[in-house]
Fold this protein.
Amino acid sequence: MGVVNVTPDSFSDGGRFLDPRRAVEEAFRQARGGAAIVDVGGESTRPGSEPVGADAEMERILPVIGALRAEGFPSWISVDTTKVEVARAALEAGADMINDISGLRFEPALAALAAEHGVPLVLMHSRGRPQTMQKAPRYDDLLGEVAAELRAGIETAIAHGLAAERVVIDPGIGFAKTAEHNHALLVRLPELAALGRPILVGTSRKSFIGRILDAPADGRLEGTIATVVLAAAAGAHIVRVHDVAACRRALLVADALRAESERIERA
């Protein structure tokens, strides 16, 4: 899953793709690099970010989604939003799935909308809101609590008419998590398999990588590659990244080596 933020203030690429034409070009570049899905968002959810209204969000993303569809975009389009109004407009413009960073905590009716349109819905684990989520996040049982809250999101989705098979879960790396929480979630990712849903992991360029490497957002490629390879080996089905081509190449090598390891074990 590639990332195209049509925002002025996203932590990594804010302002780069605020112009719709540049956003469309970037989405096609990511598709050529191997993105099966491109996630288009019009509201930054970085720690400390301020919310924007639905009208502003739609003004940013709808021209991009519409142009992608009109120009024969070959990959799926995901809309990164927590708002029913925005998601509905995006689906009508041609989006194929919804990515909700609130895990239905903000607007549970997103699940009914996904059911109505027959599209997948990503439920990400988070707590609080982006403005406050990184203020001393605390867990007594990190994996147990994250799993329980994701399970509650799945149950909410089902209660609103969405088939469980259309739900994807995301542990929410960097959302109401310390660096140590992020490390633990990646290492213990297989434990979330018990929820029975595909797992999406988004580590790309995040601050815990910068903390390890002592690097700014645009200097975290190697760290991102390490995390996505480890996440895939631990059971992630989708990795959400800014640097699609480089991460895709790393994953192809890791997959080839894993296949060879499995062949040797069977021999």
Summary: The longest helix spans residues 244-266.
